[in-house]
Design brief:
Elements (H helix, E strand, L loop, with lengths): L12 H27 L8 E2 L6 E2 L6 E2 L12 E2 L28 H9 L3 H13 L3 H13 L7 H12 L4 H13 L7 H13 L3 H13 L7 H13 L3 H13 L7 H13 L3 H13 L7 H12 L4 H13 L7 H13 L5 H8 L3 H14 L16
Antiparallel strand pairs: 1-4, 2-3
Helix pairs in contact: 2-3, 3-4, 4-5, 5-6, 6-7, 7-8, 8-9, 9-10, 10-11, 11-12, 12-13, 13-14, 14-15, 15-16, 15-17
Length: 394
Amino acid sequence: MHGFEQTFPGPSREGEDHDGNKRRKGFSALLNQAALILAAGLLVTGLLITAPALAQDSGESGDAVEADPAASAEPRPVLIDVTTSDKTLLSIVDAGPPHLREGETATSQTAYSAFQRGWFLTALGLATPLAEQGDKAAQALLGVLHEAGLGIKQDKAKAADWYALAAAQDDAGSAMQLAQLYLLGTGVETDKKKAADYFEQAANAGNASALYNLALLYQEGEGRPFDEQKSRELLEEAAQLNDPEAQYALGLSYLEAQSGLNDPGQGAFWLGRAARRGHTSAQVYYGILRFQGKGVDPNEAEAADWFERAATTGNPVAMNRLARIYANGRGREQDFAAAAGWHLIARTLGVSDLSLDRIVESLDEETLTDARKLAEQYSATLMAPSEDPARESP
């Protein structure tokens, strides 16, 4: 189909029954014992209520009075809920900040507990003296509070200072945050060399996002010398940690490598991994590979499934591909209303297609109405429903 060829970014049963009967009989005996204990008043009233059948003595003749057959049945235990009837749990905010016992000293964990409950000022007050004494966890927490402006005015420069102190004590999370600040020039001057250094520190601790970002810097030759092989090695590490962005980038590196390191099979494999983890762009690209049979067996129906999955999450390229699927009847039964509907949404989002425009123009009014209904169903915030059939489509 035209357009798909281009590349885009032992015992027997009797024995078992017998054993089962023995177990049931044993349970009945226990219940009878419990009933007798209850009759003697040795169980706490209200926890177990039974109706035991007790033989009565005449006291004179020694003859037992015949028990009522109904009362001789096995006792039926009734469990009573003795817990509070009010099962409502307090929210972590309503529960208040963590309380210290007499003589107990606050730690960074206490500060984090307050932070997690939303008591940011309390967290700030608890963490500050600890951070000033060199507690790296408290320093990292102050970095978060200053960066996000929680309990204090936002100040990313101060956040960077606290992150730097914690990173100097090998706090990988702080190194990761500081690397992002240097990469974007937020709170500090942009410095991709420092960003790469901090990404590497976090990467050495097994941080998948740091591995991914460091790989991109090697790939771009910024902050690190250009090294496609090194970039791929880092992406491989991050991809093995199930980072979908790294899996997507690794797949692309195998498909679009500039130095003869192409491997369509590996490219399709990693794009498929990313697609299955919900990476929308990977779903589109993997759908194209499935349709073309590049690096993977061709399967137009599966390709259509991937396009639809990505399209329903708002990807306009996937919408365009799905429209072509319906228009040409490949991977889906031919459906011009569906083709036009998906095309209208994709076009609204900036993906044009002249061949699909011509199909829309050729549709009868009934089919076009169905197409508009589909478009409005999936893009209610992008195109308002119109009762005027003459109104130009978006």
